[in-house]
Structure formats: structure tokens, C-alpha cells
Amino acid sequence: LRINLLFQPNSLEVLYWTASFYLIIRYIHTGKDGYVLGLGALFGLGLLNKYSAGFFVIGTLVGLLLTPHRRLLRKPAFYYAIGIALVLFLPNLIWQIKHRVPFFHHMRLLAENQLQYVKTSDFLQDQLLLCLPAVFVWTVGLASLFLVPGLRKYALVGIVYLTVLLTLILLHGKNYYTVGLYPGLLAFGGVVWERATARGGRVWLRPALLVIPVAVLLPFLPLAYPVWSPEKTAAFARKFRGTGILRWEDGQNHPLPQDYADMLGWRELTGKVAAAYQTIPAGERRQTAIICANYGQAGAINYYGKKDGLPRAHSSEASYLLWMPDGLRLKNVIVVDDEPDGLSDHFLSFRQTGRVENPYAREKGTFIIVALGADNVIRNAHYREIREKKKQFGL
């Protein structure tokens, strides 16, 4: 539920990784090549959805090499599966090459601005917190893959988990990158607990094992799902600062968890931009552009601003650059930015009309500025900047 609160590729990633584990288990159980071909299709689709699927692919290859299942490498089905994955992934691969592989540019920015703050100790602690109510299930499941005689043949699943975990530690990956790994471990943990409570005086443990996760979750429910207001949640969350639940990508603690803060402030921002737009003389509005510092701001304005008749907002950040017109010659601008420095000297009029004030929003403090009458210096500089950024990606 938590990971599906935001519209993002992580939702499908959990599905793809869980389905991949299922096909791996079915292949080990039956030896049928059809499951290998299906796995190739899932890998291709997974890479189209999110490049982190590559971690799962690497983990699978390591698992094959370290277990008797390496004999699969001698079967035609293994190479057919690779072909299926490549064919499915090919459109994106061609796009990356055509645009000079922006993936590397994105990863460099990610490493500089976010991943450098990820500590190994925090990452490992978060692995326990991700599935805390069922930690006694997935840890047993992981151990069983190497220790329980009847389940050792499925050790490849455990090797995938450990390989991905180690890779992410080395690359300072984010904690939630691993979330798709846990359904597979939960399945094996469920098998172990089912067998352990199958007979005799231990059957009574079954209802207890159902109650434990619920009992563990309920005291932390507002941190797992937004059931309270931002104000009440922030007051509650202060008690758990030491768990890292309030730590954002910048490595600092904030009033709310980052994904909660991501949901706030967008309507306020759009409303204040619309109000600023109305202050511009009617004859000047057609010559007014809305320029945002990031794609989140631009996306919010384009989504919520339709009813207010706002022109399309633009941003040169990330893939929003693709929609930035080449010939955007500026006269008037509504600037949406948290650091609008060095611009005022290039406009006849430059005034702040508002800012995001929601104390719990990630966009708190973002300025809305109406800048009228741009000079040729700033217009040409903006034009050159957009052209250079697009040229960097082969546009």
C-alpha cells in the first residue's frame, strides 16, 4: 500500500520481481524451459519499467553460476530468454543511444545529490524496517534457503537477494530499491512456519502468527500509511526520528517522511501561480511563459492549472527538457524557483507575488515571481542554455 501511494515505476517493479521469483521457483521445481522464456520476457519488461531491474538480472546470473542450476547456461532456452529480453528492451536502448545515453547523466546527478547521503548502516537498518511486521517471516525464509534440506535447491532465490543487497550497498542505493525482493523470501518463510506448526501442540501458534504482524503494525500505522492529518502525523513522527523514517534524500530529518511531503503543496503552488498570472495585464499574458526549477512544479501546474487557463509550464530539468520549445523567446516570465538569483537586473519589473507556505510540503519556500519586460541578454542566455542542454542529449 505504501509504495503505491505515489505514481511511480516502483509499483510495477514489485510485481515484476515477485513474478520473476515465481518463475525461477517453478523452473527449479519442474525443469520446464517455458518458465525460462517467461523470465526473459519479465526481465525485458522490467528494464523498460525501471533500470534497477538490472540488479535482479545480475543477481539471477550470479545465482545460476553458484548453484547446480548453472546447467541452464548450456540450454538453448537460456539464450532464447536473453533474446526475448533484448528485443523487448531494444526500443528504450535505441532511445538511450540516440539521446547520448542520458541514463549516465541522471545517475551522476543522483550520486551527487542523493546517493552520497546513503550510509550502509542506515541502509541495513531500513531493510529491517521495510517489512518490520513480518520480519520473523522473511528472515526465516532467507535462512531456510541455505539451511533447510528440502529448500536448499531453491538457494538461487537467496543468492539473488544477497547479491542485490551487496550491489546496492556498494553503489549506495536507496533503501526501497530492495522492496521487490521480499515477497519471495516471505513465501519461503511462510512454508517454514506452516510446517513448523502443522501438528501437535504447535497448531495454536498459527493464529498467534497472524496476530503478531497486526499487533506490530498498529502502533506505527500513521508512519506506514497516511491515516492522519499532516499536523498530527508530524507530531507523532517526532518520536521516531532515530529510526530514519524522517530522513530525506538530502540526508537530513524533516517534519514528515519524504513521500508524504511529496504529496503536499501542489494545489497551493498552482493557485498562487494562477493568481500571479492574473496580475499581468491581459494584453501581456500571451507573451508570458511559466518557467519552473523542476519537473514536479511544472507537472503540478500543467495538471491543476488547466481550469485557471494557465499556459503550459516548462522546465529544463530531466526529461521535461524534451517538451521545452526551441524558440521560447521570453518577454514576460512567471518564475517558480526556490533560488531565483541573478535575474532581477534583466527585467523592467521583477516582483515576488507569493511562495509555498505549507510547512509540511517538500516545496515549502518555493517563490512565485512575476518578471516583466525581459532584456535581450536574459532572452538570449535562456535560448542558448536550452539549445546547449538539448544538444547534450542529441536533440
Give a quick set of tags describing it.
395 residues; 5-stranded mixed beta sheet
Short précis:
With 395 residues, the chain is an alpha/beta fold. The protein is 54% helix and 8% strand. 27% of the residues are buried.
Question: What does this molecule look like?
Answer:
The protein is an alpha/beta fold. 54% of the residues lie in helices and 8% in strands. The protein has 17 helices and five strands. The chain has a five-stranded mixed sheet. α7 (135-147) crosses α8. The protein is globular, with a radius of gyration of 26 Å.
Q: How much is the average pLDDT?
A: 93
- Give the count of helical stretches: 17
Can you list the strand order of the major beta sheet? Answer: 2-1-3-5-4
Give the termini separation: 39 Å
Cα radius of gyration in angstroms: 26 Å
Describe the biggest sheet?
5 strands, mixed
Number of strands: 5
User: Which regions have little confidence, pLDDT < 50, spanning 5+ residues?
Assistant: none
Shape: globular
SSE sequence, one letter per element: HHHHHHHHHHHHHHHEHEEEEH
Find the structural class using helix and strand composition: alpha/beta
Portion of residues in beta strands equals 5-15%
Provide the helix percentage.
40-55%
